[in-house]
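Hi Y.,

Following your request, here is the sequence exactly as I used it, all 140 residues.
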Amino acid sequence: MQRQPSDRRAFLKQAASTGLLVSSGVVAQAFLQGGSVHAKQLIDARPLIAHASSWSSWEDLGGIITSGPAAASWSSGRLDCFAKGTDNAMWHKWFDGGWSGWESLGGVIDNAPAAVSWGRNRIDCFARGMNNHMWHKWWG
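Below is the corresponding structure, written out as tokens. Let me know if you'd prefer a different format.
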């Protein structure tokens, strides 16, 4: 980044202290080095801005969950969600052209599960059990 006029430079130094800079739709990581402000482009957010107005309304998916949800997708058009239920079991709901009902995957977990997919037809879930051990369940 080239040297800026003093008032703009002061602004950029302040922005660099926060670590993020947005200019004309480009998101950059800002940092100070040797008294100068530098920026490393992270993403060009301009294409994303066009989609900002296309969010849906909130949709009630039912169930009573006692943790934050986790989600993973193992295929185009497929979304799997997981949460801890009132019985401390892990519960599962998925979207594949429409939402399924909730199904219990059992277990006794102490917190919100985490979910990841590392390939088609594979999902791995992790959660802390009541014994403070990490537990793993997968589908594939």
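The first strand starts at residue 20 and ends at 23.

Thanks again,
Q.
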